[in-house]
């Protein structure tokens, strides 16, 4: 309907009616006006219309500066008396200045340092960076990453010639660590096997398997049919509810409601009677909570003394204690079988202090080694096949 | 009035506002993981554990302030410029333009970490407090083999050796060493400098292995770079405090033959500026002599300090402990056999006032010298025996150092299994258990000090009542 109302575009009449000639008329008007007033603006050269103002620009004051320039009435009153000096009521910000001052001081220090460099430094250009100490620096506390010391001296039993008792202690510790690992492996869940050894299926069994698949579909169809018929049967059995029935239901409801109220009141009175008991219970619970909280905090602190908190994807694995076995204690420094992987010890120390996020163990476990082997085998076989085919083609 | 609104995605408070994950930090800083790790190490930024890990337990969280701290540091731009420069070298190589690649390699911009060291350790005492880790790492790298694959440069290893020797020479000269403990891992030393106890670990003299798994070498090398700079500055300050010029210019011959500690000792003697004019002339003489000697000697290893020293360093400033340590091995001359750990001995013995020499060229005195009081051997049997000197195992030296008395040498003689080497870092009273050898040592100590100790098994009751002794 809308399209018909707009009017059809066919026909010359339609064309003539809808074209507006405003712009043409405007143009004529304008040109008349221009002619009367002495030439159109667009035909004049730029210079006659514009000029470059090289005079000084008025500085744009920030709003807040303008605000601060305002003199309060009380101040202006005081200004009239030359003997009374007015303190500005609103202080300008001091912070920015002090920052700038600091920067200047630092720059000065740098310059003096450079000056010193040229005077007293040796050929290598080294200079004492702590020469300007004691200038009352801000005692800014640098947060330490961990309470664990950087170099932990080992126990007495790890000496190259230890006493018997201390050696036994350290040995016991090392053995305990190893046994823990073994137990963990044994008692933990079994890793999923890659391949399950299968049995050969007889032909008969295979038929049974296939039969099962078919029967499943049939069962599903039967069930859905039964449900539909059940619904229809039930709908024919509901009766209309009578007034008698409704009244009965109301009476029952009232009874229930009253009973519930009575019960509530009884409970409330019971609770009020046993109020001191309740208070006792609450205090006990609070104490328990407090104790638990303290225990957890202490446990966490103890844990932090030994290992870092969880900082990444992988857990921290402490390095094993380096103890000599009983046979290896010869008492001779020359024959000492020392630790030759101190690099690992240093790295573990860095991880322990939380400076580095623990790195994943690159050791491949059984599953991944087997997978790798399998994949490499497959790739090798494929490659051989391809080359053989290619050679066959060539020949 | 402009409306203040929070930009979309920016949280106002809570853990999410204070911590960000590593990937978010990388995006903010626009760096890759390697560079980020390096920056964290240089600036001393470490990952935190927020109470609620809002992006999961498997992420690493950093404090937002730490990350902005890194962002506003000029070293970020320097590192970026360095990696851009490296790309130029790679490009030149790819275009088979070898000369350009070589020129660029030689002119690589170097990053100075001086400012960072000063930022992290505004006072000297802060640097001393944190000196354990740097010392251990530098000593470790001084003993490692250089490896191209793991990017351990030969120059680096030499620099570490130089720094470690300078430190050892200082400690030895100013008698600041207090405890030594030989364990399976290596040798632990503890020194006391300006009231701070500094403990560090040195590897044994054996060849160190570079394990491949579990260790990321880039990280260790970044730490090493920072620590080298720190240690250099600390050495500088310490050397200045005893009026010796740093860096010490050693005789290149001695350096080439790995005689650094010895060369350093001589440098000390030559360069400690004396207080009077008389000593100035003496110093010149000794310098001349030194130059002559050095021409004659090609050799190795740290050595005899005490012979050349005329004026010891400022005595008035030494405290009780230092004096005690200085006089422990006074007037004792040691000679080391070939199988004894030389560097360790050459550090420890002069630190306690003794003179030491070894077999080889350039040593101060030879095996046949009559004034040798002790010879340190580690063999099952000793062939020719001089009667004027005692033959002991190296453990004797260390035990004497730990107990601060001269122990009887018969337990440590050649061929015997010496008594157990106790750890000086363990406070026996605290543990409650005192090993037998410790008891023996206590007695010897008190005998040296002329005290009366109760008999074993009895308490101190007898001491209170003097009449009991009489009657």
Automatic annotation (TrEMBL), chain A:
Annotated protein name in UniProt: Ribosome biogenesis protein NOP53
- GO CC terms: nucleolus; nucleoplasm
Q: Spell out the Polar residues composition-biased ranges.
A: 221-232
Principal localization?
A: nucleus
| Keyword field | Membrane, Nucleus, Ribosome biogenesis, Transmembrane, Transmembrane helix
Name where it's found.
Nucleus, Nucleolus; Nucleus, Nucleoplasm
Q: Where on the tree of life does the source sit, at the highest rank?
A: Eukaryota
Its GO biological process annotations read: ribosomal large subunit assembly; rRNA processing
Chain intervals with Basic and acidic residues compositional bias: 101-117
Matches recorded under InterPro entries: Nop53/GLTSCR2 (IPR011687)
Q: Which molecular function term from Gene Ontology is one that the record holds?
A: 5S rRNA binding
Q: Which residues form a coiled coil?
A: none
Functional summary from the UniProt entry = May play a role in ribosome biogenesis.
Source organism (scientific name): Citrus sinensis (Sweet orange)
Q: Where is this region: Disordered?
A: 83-147, 213-241
As for family, the record states: Belongs to the NOP53 family.
Its transmembrane ranges are: 370-388
From TrEMBL, chain B:
Per UniProt, which keywords does this protein have?
Nucleus, Ribosome biogenesis, rRNA processing
What is a GO molecular function of this protein?
Answer: RNA binding
Any single GO BP term: maturation of 5.8S rRNA from tricistronic rRNA transcript (SSU-rRNA, 5.8S rRNA, LSU-rRNA)
- GO CC annotation terms, alphabetical: nucleoplasm; PeBoW complex; preribosome, large subunit precursor
- List where in the cell it is found: Nucleus, Nucleolus; Nucleus, Nucleoplasm
Q: Any idea where the BRCT domain is?
A: 324-414
Q: Which Gene3D superfamilies match?
A: BRCT domain
Organism domain of life: Eukaryota
**Function description:** Required for maturation of ribosomal RNAs and formation of the large ribosomal subunit.
PANTHER family cross-referenced by the UniProt entry:
PESCADILLO - RELATED (PTHR12221), PESCADILLO HOMOLOG (PTHR12221:SF6)
Name the family the entry cites: Belongs to the pescadillo family.
Protein name as it appears in the record: Pescadillo homolog
Question: Origin organism of this chain?
Answer: Citrus sinensis (Sweet orange)
């Amino acid at each position: 309907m809308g399209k018909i109302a707009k009017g059809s575009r066919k026909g010359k009449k339609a064309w003539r009616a809808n074209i507006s000639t405003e712009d043409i008329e405007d143009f004529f008007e304008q040109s008349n006006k221009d002619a009367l007033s002495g030439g159109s603006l667009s035909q004049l050269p730029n210079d006659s219309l514009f000029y470059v103002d090289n005079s000084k620009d008025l500085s744009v004051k920030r709003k807040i500066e303008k605000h601060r320039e305002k003199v309060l009435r009380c101040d202006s009153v005081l200004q009239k008396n030359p003997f009374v000096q007015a303190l500005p009521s609103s202080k300008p910000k001091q912070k920015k200045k002090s920052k700038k001052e600091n920067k200047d001081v630092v720059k000065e220090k740098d310059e003096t340092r450079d000056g010193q460099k040229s005077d007293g430094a040796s050929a290598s250009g080294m200079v004492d960076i702590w020469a300007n100490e004691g200038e009352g620096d801000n005692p800014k506390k640098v947060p330490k990453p961990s309470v664990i010391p950087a170099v932990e001296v080992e126990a007495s039993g790890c000496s190259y010639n230890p006493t018997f008792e201390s050696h036994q202690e350290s040995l016991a510790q090392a053995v305990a660590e190893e046994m823990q690992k073994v137990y963990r492996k044994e008692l933990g869940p079994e890793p999923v096997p890659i391949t399950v050894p299968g049995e050969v299926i007889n032909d008969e069994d295979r038929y049974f398997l296939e039969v099962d698949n078919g029967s499943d579909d049939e069962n599903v169809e039967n069930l859905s049919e039964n449900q539909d018929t059940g619904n229809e049967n039930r709908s024919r059995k509901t009766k209309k509810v009578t007034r008698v029935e409704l009244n009965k239901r109301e009476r029952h409801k009232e009874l229930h409601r009253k009973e519930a109220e009575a019960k509530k009141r009884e409970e409330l009175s019971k609770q009020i009677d046993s109020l001191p008991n309740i208070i006792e219970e609450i205090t006990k619970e609070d104490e328990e909570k407090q104790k638990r909280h303290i225990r957890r905090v202490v446990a966490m602190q103890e844990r932090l003394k030994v290992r870092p908190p969880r900082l990444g994807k992988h857990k921290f694995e402490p390095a094993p204690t380096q103890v000599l076995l009983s046979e290896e204690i010869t008492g001779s420094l020359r024959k000492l079988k020392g630790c030759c992987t101190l690099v690992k010890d240093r790295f573990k120390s860095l991880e322990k202090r939380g400076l580095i996020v623990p790195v994943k163990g690159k050791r491949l476990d059984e599953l991944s080694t087997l997978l790798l082997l399998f994949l490499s085998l497959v790739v090798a076989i494929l490659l051989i096949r391809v080359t053989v085919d290619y050679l066959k083609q060539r020949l | 009035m402009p409306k203040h609104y929070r930009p979309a995605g920016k949280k106002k408070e809570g853990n999410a506002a204070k911590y960000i994950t590593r990937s978010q930090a990388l995006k903010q800083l626009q760096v890759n993981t390697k560079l980020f790790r390096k920056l964290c190490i240089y600036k001393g930024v470490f990952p935190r554990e927020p109470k609620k890990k809002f992006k999961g337990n498997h992420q690493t969280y950093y404090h937002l302030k730490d990350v902005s701290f890194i962002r506003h540091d000029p070293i970020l731009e320097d590192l970026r410029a360095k990696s851009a420069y490296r790309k130029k070298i790679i490009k030149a190589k790819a275009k088979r333009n070898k000369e350009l690649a070589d020129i660029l390699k030689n002119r690589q911009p170097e990053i100075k970490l001086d400012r960072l060291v000063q930022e992290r350790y505004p006072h000297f005492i802060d640097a001393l407090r944190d000196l354990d880790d740097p010392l251990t790492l530098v000593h470790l790298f001084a003993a490692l083999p250089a490896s191209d694959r793991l990017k351990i440069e030969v120059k680096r290893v030499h620099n570490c050796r130089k720094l470690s020797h300078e430190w050892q020479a200082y400690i030895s000269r100013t008698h600041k060493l207090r405890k030594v403990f030989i364990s399976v891992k290596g040798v632990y030393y503890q020194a006391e400098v300006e009231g701070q106890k500094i403990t560090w670990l040195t590897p044994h003299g054996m060849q160190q292995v570079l394990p491949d798994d579990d260790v990321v070498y880039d990280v260790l090398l970044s730490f090493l770079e920072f620590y080298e700079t720190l240690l250099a500055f600390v050495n500088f300050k310490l050397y200045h405090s005893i009026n010796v010029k740093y860096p010490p210019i050693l005789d290149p011959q001695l350096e080439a033959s790995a005689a650094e500690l010895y060369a350093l000792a001589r440098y000390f003697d030559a360069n400690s500026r004396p207080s009077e004019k008389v000593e100035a002339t003496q110093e010149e003489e000794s310098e001349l002599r030194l130059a002559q000697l050095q021409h004659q000697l090609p050799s190795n290893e740290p050595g005899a300090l005490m012979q050349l020293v005329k004026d010891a360093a400022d005595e008035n400033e030494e405290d009780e402990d230092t004096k005690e340590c200085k006089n422990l091995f006074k007037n004792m001359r040691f000679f080391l056999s070939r199988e004894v750990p030389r560097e360790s001995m050459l550090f420890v013995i002069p630190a306690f006032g003794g003179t030491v020499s070894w077999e080889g060229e350039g040593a101060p005195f030879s095996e046949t010298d009559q004034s040798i009081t002790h010879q340190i051997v580690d063999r099952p049997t000793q062939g020719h025996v001089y009667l004027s000197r005692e033959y002991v195992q190296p453990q004797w030296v260390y035990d004497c150092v730990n107990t601060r008395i001269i122990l009887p040498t018969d337990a440590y003689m050649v061929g015997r299994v010496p008594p157990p080497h106790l750890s000086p870092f363990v406070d026996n009273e605290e543990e409650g258990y005192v090993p037998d050898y410790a008891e023996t040592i206590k007695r010897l100590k008190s005998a040296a000090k002329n005290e009366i100790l109760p008999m074993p098994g009895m308490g101190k009751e007898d001491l209170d009542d003097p009449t009991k002794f009489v009657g």
